[in-house]
Design brief:
- The protein is 20% helix and 21% strand.
- By secondary structure, the protein is α/β, with parallel strands linked by helices.
- It has one domain (49-352, 360-378).
- The protein is globular.
- The N and C termini lie far apart (50 Å).
- It comes from Exophiala mesophila (Black yeast-like fungus).
- Keywords: Hydrolase, Signal.
- Belongs to the carbon-nitrogen hydrolase superfamily. Nitrilase family.
Length: 393
């Protein structure tokens, strides 16, 4: 069966399959899944490998979340990384019971995208305190859940590392091994007032028994500096994380969409092109809905968006993919549009009249917690100022 002649199956929390028998070794009370002699996990069928994304928000209650009022209206009154982690652990086990092989969470799902801070910087300390920290109790709870569930899990988080916040993505193996841990290279527009820039050397694709997997966030899909290095590494499965969802088929109203970030069609344009040119299966993880694109670059399956106040939406949505048809033992292709020759062509085609100056936009920006709290004390929001993608803030 070719990658295009797949069996597409919809999976959700409302339709759970009886879990298959698991081959596990028990160590320190945790289930540790091991590869079998064929190089696969017994419970994850390479011909029926389900890739899925979480639809539910980080907060208890209906979906979609009203991004401009949450989470202040929630019972807990603010972001709560512990409650969100507990919710995620439940979702991971639920997905594993339903036969999912890879489960992806949306962008900064931990603890949630800070839309409320657009107008209320008083919540800054809360957001800092509820950002995920590697090695803390919540991080460890996620790793343990992954080990017990025995599936691949990709998360999007606001991560605190020392005195800085980052927009982070992590991919864990069914054994709880950290396969990818990266930060968004350059937070988009006004996001750069809150989160610091990540590192270029983290644009990596990892090999698994079920194909080569890579991760990018939101508008990283529109920047060739991020997409080209990733596509050169021959992904099979790509995870694209976004903060919120709208119908990508709906025609935008130019009177109301005043910024490209507000358009679902613009946001998805980069993913469509990325998917088609790299010939990947792409899981688009978004709050309030889910898209999965096939290697042709079109939407193979979509769930949502759901009406405001929906309580009975499924936890996740996915499709089944035959991973045995993926390219084997190939990590690059020199005779391709993403080979080094194509990179040289871009350099050679660069206009001579433009000064060979690196400019300011590529400078790595760091935003310290001290600075964030100092701004909050002056009631300055982090979404103020020049929000163009081309200008350093």
């Amino acid at each position: 069966m070719s990658a295009r002649r797949f069996v597409s199956l919809l999976w959700s929390a409302s339709v759970l399959l009886a879990p298959t028998s698991l081959a596990v070794a028990v160590s320190s009370g945790k289930a540790v899944h091991k590869l079998n002699a064929r190089g696969f996990y017994d419970h994850l069928d390479p011909e029926n490998f389900i890739i899925a994304s979480v639809i539910q928000s980080p907060f208890e209650g209906p979906i979609p979340v009203s991004v401009w009022t949450e989470p202040q209206s929630l019972p807990q009154g603010t972001w709560n990384i512990t409650l969100t982690t507990q919710r995620a652990v439940r979702f991971i086990h639920e997905a594993a019971a339903g036969g999912v092989g890879l489960l992806a969470f949306p962008e900064v799902w931990f603890p949630g995208y800070p839309f409320p801070m657009k107008a209320q910087p008083k919540y800054t300390q809360d957001y800092i305190d509820n950002s995920l920290v590697e090695g803390d109790s919540n991080w460890n709870a996620l790793v343990e859940a992954v080990q017990e569930a025995g599936i691949y899990v990709a998360i999007g988080a606001s991560e605190r590392r020392g005195d800085l916040l980052f927009m982070t993505q992590v991919l864990w193996s069914p054994e709880g091994e950290k396969l990818i841990h990266r930060q968004k290279v350059r937070a988009s527009a006004y996001e750069r007032n809150l989160w610091s820039d990540g590192d270029w050397n983290d644009l990596k694709v990892v090999a698994t028994p079920y194909g080569r997997i890579g991760l990018l966030e939101c508008w990283e899909h529109l920047h060739p500096q991020m997409t080209f290095p990733m596509q050169a590494q021959l992904e099979d499965i790509h995870v694209a994380m976004y903060p919120n969802f709208a119908d990508p088929h709906m025609v935008d109203n130019p009177e109301t969409v005043l910024h490209p970030f507000s358009s679902m069609k613009v946001n998805m344009a980069g993913v469509h092109v990325y998917t088609a040119t790299s010939k990947t299966w792409t899981v688009v993880a978004v709050n309030g809905g889910s898209l999965i694109m096939n290697p042709v670059g079109v939407i193979q399956s979509m769930m949502g968006p759901f009406p405001q106040g929906t309580y009975d939406a499924p936890t996740y949505h996915g499709v089944s993919v035959n991973t045995t048809t993926f390219r084997k033992n190939r990590t690059y292709e020199i005779n391709s549009q993403f080979g080094f020759g194509s990179l040289l062509e871009m350099i050679q085609a660069y206009p001579d009249y433009i000064p060979k100056d690196t400019g300011t936009w590529v400078q790595k920006k760091e935003v310290t917690v001290f600075y964030l709290l100092e701004q909050a004390a002056q009631n300055i929001t982090y979404f103020d100022g020049d929000d163009s993608a081309e200008t350093i803030l």
